[in-house]
Amino acid sequence: MVETPGASSAPTEARTVVVRVSDVIKHFVHGKRQLRALDGVSFELPEGRFLVVVGPSGCGKTTLLRILAGLEQQDSGEVWMRPSRDGHPPFAMVFQEQSVFPWLTVRDNVAYGLKLRRVRGRQVEERASHWIRKVGLSGFERAYPHQLSGGMKQRVSIARAFAVDPDVLLMDEPFSALDEQMRTILQQEVSSLCEEQQKTVIFVTHSIDEALTLGDEVLVMTHRPGRVKRVIPVPFPRPRDVVEVRADPRYGELYEEIWGLIAEEVRRGPQEHR
Ligand SMILES: Nc1ncnc2c1ncn2[C@@H]1O[C@H](COP(=O)(O)OP(=O)(O)OP(=O)(O)O)[C@@H](O)[C@H]1O
């Protein structure tokens, strides 16, 4: 279970915690005003767990992910991630779109993170080729991003993230720019890869469908300033078929529950002081 003050009371499994977020507060300055974006966000994530974060637009989902990635600094509170064994950052990030380098080929994009981590020549080749194959891009090694479809570009980003073998994957709406067919295909692929590779994932999305399809837990945030409103366990077993789970009667019930929580926040609107 993700441990939060708003979480359900299901028993905690004895798994190693790999991410801990404690009472994180973050403000942004807008002109003369200070806007509180995050207001005391806390949770713990055990190894191998897939957490999906949803909430009203502007509630701080991306800010939370950027703080986890060290791209943004919180004003107070703590973020801890279990250090990796090799001393490199323990996470990799996949963004919404355009996160591949247009001047690099597919192969060089996938190899990029490996080179940053000083992986040696032959191993770079092997690992890049392995992940290019895994995401179905064999034959496109020498193609440039402008020669690829949106779905193929996201496959490159996914391969680049998996290639460095991070313990934690941070994913910020990675499929939101794709059409529904491609989104479903990539959801299935990412779900299977994360199951196979035992990754711990924090995944931000606007889509309740996507949250229920992929997550072990769905963390619903309040409207701004973002707090943890509720954490909802997703009961569907793994390995998971992302189309089959939608036919489960519990799917509709969970959808309604999450939608109700988000709608309540949208109706309430942003609240600076609560
Ligand atoms: N660099 C920044 N400078 C100023 N304000 C910012 C900055 N980044 C985010 N904000 C503000 O912080 C709040 C949270 O933004 P954030 O992008 O994290 O929300 P979000 O939940 O990811 O939104 P969406 O669902 O629309 O993508 C918003 O009100 C936004 O305007």
From TrEMBL:
Q: Which InterPro entries match?
A: AAA+_ATPase, ABC_transporter-like_ATP-bd, ABC_transporter-like_CS, ABC_transporter_ATP-bind, P-loop_NTPase
Domain named ABC transporter is located at 19-248
Q: Which GO terms describe its molecular function?
A: ATP binding; ATP hydrolysis activity
What keywords were assigned to this record?
Answer: ATP-binding, Nucleotide-binding, Transport
> Where does the source fall among the domains of life?
Bacteria
| Xref: Pfam families | ABC_tran (PF00005)
Q: Does the keyword ATP-binding apply?
A: yes
Q: What's the protein called, per UniProt? A: ABC transporter ATP-binding protein
